[in-house]
Amino acid sequence: MPRLHRLRATVLPQARQVLAYGDLKPEHVAFPDGTAGRPVFIDPGLLLAGTSVDAAKLISRTVLLLAAARPGPQVARQAADGIHGFAESRMRGLSTKSRRGWLRELLALWLMDSVNILTTYLSAALPLPGQGTALIGRAVELCRMADQISTELADRSNARTVWEHALTEAQAVMS
Q: What is the Cα–Cα distance from 19 to 163, expressed in whole angstroms?
């Protein structure tokens, strides 16, 4: 999407860079001692990046995983609430201006990752895993979600309002 490429230039430059996991997604978190134990992270792609990179990829992959699984409205609502709580916890201590910038960056990276994964599945010449096939079946809904959210971001709408709308859109796609 050309709009996402334009957003990258206006949203992504962030002065503070940290060591990011780089490939944080649900499939890369294991609980060898059960969910009450400490998680183990596998397959890192370490890089210096903005503080929202790992959060954006985790949100993107969670939404795509649930969009493929279609667990129903109750689980989708719980996931959207969990995503919101996760993002809020990551913004604690940030100034209002920094929160707006972080949310804009998070949203743009989330959409970029989602579109990247979807286009990879759509152009694959090899047999796809079940999740890939399921996402191809939801491509129109996922693209519509990305289009609506990126339009709001490009219009420089209030970041909080865009975030809340994005969670509503994600919840609908995950249902």
A: 25
CA-angle at 92, arms to 6 and 43, nearest 5° = 65
Q: What DSSP designation does 49 have?
A: E
pTM of this prediction exceeds 0.85: no
Q: What is the pLDDT of residues 76-122, one digit of tens each?
A: 999 999 999 999 999 999 999 999 999 999 999 999 999 999 999 99
- Residues 3, 15, 158: CA angle, nearest 5 degrees: 45
Q: How far apart are the first and last CA of the chain?
A: 24
Is 126 a residue whose pLDDT tops 60?
A: yes
Residue type, 38: R
Q: What is the identity of the amino acid at 18?
A: V
Task: Scan for tokens 């990126």, then name that residue.
Answer: 150
